[in-house]
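Please, structure for the following, as tokens.
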Amino acid sequence: MLGRFMPIRPDSPLSEVPGLPARVLRALEKEGVENAARIIEWLPFRHEDRRQTGGRVFQPGTTPVCHQVRVTRTGNKFFGSRRGGVFEAQVEQLDDNALGQVLTLRWWGMPFMSRAIAEGQELVVYGRVKDFKGRLSMDHPEYEVLGGEDEPGIHTGRVTPVYRLRAGITQKALRTAAWHVFQSLEPDFTADVLPAPGAQGEFAGWSRARAVRAAHFAESLEELETARRYLALEEFYTYQLRVVRRRRAVVLSGGHAHPAGELAGRFEAGLPFAMTGAQKRSLEEIQRDMAAPAPMNRLLHGDVGSGKTVVAFAAMLGAVEAGRQAALMAPTQILAEQHFLTARKWLEPLGLGVALRTAARSSEGESFFSDRRADIVIGTHALLYDDELLKNTGLVVIDEQHKFGVAQRARLIQKGGTPDVLVMTATPIPRTLTLTIYGDLDVSTLDERPKERGKIITRVRPASKQDEAARFLIGQLEQGRQAYLVYPIIEESEKLDVTAVTKGCAEWAKRLPHFQTALLHGRMSAEEKEEVMRGFRAGRVDVLVATTVIEVGVDVPNASVMFIHHAERYGLAQLHQLRGRVGRGEHTSYCVLFVKDKDDEARERLAILEETTDGFRISEEDLKRRGPGDVLGRAQSGQAPLQFAELLADTRLVRLARRLAERTLDEDPDLLTPRLAGVRGFVLNEETPRSAMQ
């Protein structure tokens, strides 16, 4: 019991919360916020340290501070209309030993503040003091009335939560409601999900209830950070329960041994280049997994141009020698056809049959697959829906994994009768993200660029410099090189201030009358796209003006120039992926990122692309700025946003969560422990994970 009131529960109506001001209750209920749980779940998106006091002096500065003041004069000033005025309150320090300074509090366009602030009131105000021609002022300060309706120390003088708001609810009303809810909640209002912490460890004495309270109203910044880490560990733990359980299920499902034979050696000997050390290391890891009777489940990731396709084709030969098919699924028809052509060039000399299956075409017709004459099958998502295909599949390779959902991957695996699985991505993934998102996979990393690849020079330029860039482009084309010109949209839009690819193609055709220009975008038919790409690969097309449809898989070694228009609209990882279409041959390549004139913010953000071609470093920067969903793609079914985790800083917590999940599943494989009731559905059935507050 808290005081003379019975503690409330999360499902208690807000009307039962002791001390909650009636005006706040009415405002929340009007917006459909009716019980305590809704307030508990409404997490602050940041906190402000409002413990800083300005002392006895009003001192102008850039840092907001708190002052205890007395209101000496109030009034509204209007400028032409009653809407355009400002409410002012002159205040002085409460401290009798202060210097007698006057500070003017101002609320622009808020004449109704005259009903809240009155002469003689004593306030705590929080804001930034400004000096304009010797007059000290503070605009739109947060304030509390000392001795007023609210208890002191909710809005000022503490580590203060700041919430994202919706219409009809003010910051002060929501914060007041949260304060009274947490003052009234029963001590253990939510059950722990994590195993009980040790008596001497980092989280000794912590519980989920304590962490949630501190996530709203921490007593210090140190307590706030510990609460964040506790709740981040809980998030990681929930995910790790799922990925570890999935991993164990794959091992127990039984598989087939596919030991490497002489085909892999013949394949490597026939390549026109030497494999890098990273390629050889990764292939050895894959072959070791494939030789075991348990199904392989491995991620091969590396930077653009690091040679994943070579490793994948070499791995597929193990399945073929074991008398089974190998399949490769690509996210687009263009990429599937690119892989098909490469596979025919490299694998048919070994006596292997290679087939293509996409939604638009099949290389051999319907009967080809039922006869099982293809050793290697390459296709798009169409592979998922062919009832005759993949019945004898030994290895499934999924290229550009982030373009597919987890459910699609699972369906392809099911159709193949528990084959070995190799997923690939050219999006370099920070270690923490790999452990979190792909924790059910073993990981092989290609961190070495083939020596025969040319250097890529990247520059960020204002859009007004396109004429200068055009002269440079003409010089490259006259040397026999080819180019990509990338635009973000297909057709002009009144809502977007960007050039469409159709208009861009027409403009560049006029600028480059002596060279062949072609257009490529996602609305073209499969036949049209293939015809354009065939012309570009053959050198009949000099300049390919395209959307991001070329982002993956297009491999034309003679292309050495890329212009990306409106580069400020793309993430760093996507720009790096696009840039990877050049630099695939021996020639020095150039990537120019055009941004809006005077867009200093974009130039600063994109500067890292000028500094480095290290995709792992770029991916970490992108992760900092945009979050995991944007870095990896939205197709990772079941991947809810992490609310508390900081993926670059919390690698240690991911590893701890992994150990805890392993231990939990050793002791309780079916997750029957009562504390796991709230997350069981997510772990077992790929449901969206519960909120930390439910």
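Residues 262-446 form a domain with the Rossmann fold fold (CATH 3.40.50.300). The radius of gyration is 31 Å.
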